Amino acid sequence: MFFPSETGTTICLSQEFKLGIVETNKGAHGIDNGWITFKHFRVPRESLLNKFGDVDSDGNYITSISNPGKRFANSIASLSGGRVLISRLACECGLLSSVITLRYGVARTQFGPPNQPEVPLISYPSYQYRTITRFVNHFIEAIGKI
User: Fold this and answer.
1) Which pLDDT does position 112 carry in this prediction?
2) Which residues pair with 3 in a beta bridge?
3) How far is CA 27 from the centre of its chain?
4) DSSP-based three-state secondary structure for 145
5) Which residue has better confidence, 123 or 146?
6) Is the pLDDT reported for residue 6 higher than 60?
7) CB within 8 Å of 22: residues ≥ 6 apart
8) Can you point out the beta strands (E) in the chain?
9) The pTM is what?
10) What percent of the chain has pLDDT over 90?
11) What sign has the CA pseudo-torsion 7, 8, 13, 19?
12) pLDDT digits (tens, 9 = 90+) for 47-68
């Protein structure tokens, strides 16, 4: 039986099973935050996700990987690709932002001498130092990731 709770973000499927959405998301607005609660809910042994281990009919955990370190490494190996992808995306975002900053410095003018046209930001040594050094760092990181 489906019925929403008072907040409108919780659905009670039964007394044993509820699911909901966390609406106040701290910074990661593109990610769905949900939760599930089980109360006296039995999951059949056949329905378990058992890539590296299983539970026998007596309730004992069995696995084909005897070494706990190797079993742990196999379990978290799928996370490594995501971590590498996140670091690569961070490097690409840094390169893109430094390119945008350099282009802005070429196009934006201000503080010209009296009775003369304004000067582009890129002509100031402090702006050059801050933007070009970061661009070079991000560019080298991007080349290293190829």
Assistant:
1) 79
2) 12
3) 11
4) coil
5) 123
6) no
7) 9, 33, 34, 35
8) 3-4, 10-12, 17-21, 34-38, 54-55, 61-62, 109-110, 119-120
9) 0.52
10) 26
11) negative
12) 777 777 888 888 888 888 888 8
Q: Which residues contact 113 (CB under 8 A, 6 or more apart)?
A: 119
**Residue 138: count of CB within 10 angstroms of its CB:** 20
CA distance 3 to 1: 7
pLDDT band at 30 (very low <50, low <70, confident <90, very high): low
Structure token digits, residue 13: 């499927």
- Distance CA(6)–CA(125), nearest Å, equals 60
Query: How far apart are alpha carbons 74 and 51 in whole angstroms?
Result: 10
Sign of torsion over alpha carbons 39, 43, 49, 50 = positive
Q: Are 138 and 132 in contact (CB under 8 A)?
A: no
Q: How far apart are CA 105 and CA 131, in angstroms?
A: 9
Structural contact between residues 41 and 19, judged by C-beta atoms closer than 8 angstroms: no
Q: Could you tell me the CA-to-CA distances from 52 to 20, 48, 60, 122, 134 in Å, in that order?
A: 30, 11, 14, 57, 44
Distance CA 136, CA 130 (A): 11
